[in-house]
Amino acid sequence: MLDELGLEPTLRWLARTFQKRTGIDVEVVLEGRERRADADLETLVYRIVQEALTNAARHSGARAVTVTLCRERRKLSVRIADRGTGFDADALLSASDEDRGFGVRAMRDRVEFVDGRFSLRSAPGEGTVVEAEIPLPDAAKETE
Length: 144
Prior knowledge:
Number of helices: 5
Helix content: 40-55%
Structural class: alpha+beta
């Protein structure tokens, strides 16, 4: 689906199916001009959103999640935010790999592998925000 339709339509499909399955509302916000990125980068962003939504459903108690995808000339940014229960993000991020959730580690590692930036912000009672910035190669194509 991702290869055929592109990132934006696939994220909207993911949001709809996630909402039907979990009852959690998902708003997808798209900023910037639509352009296809490298298929591997689109897959990376999709997997980050998928993992962050899964974590929100499992742990946050949130009723709604907002996914914001921002395309700029040189980077692709994604932000997944919920207003759930939150947690001590500093403790999670400083924990040893054995004590840290595999999903968070996988998201961070995927982003860092492509020289991107990953952040996770949360505090008890404050919800959670997952953000990733992925540099785009000059070859990114704009759609008509």
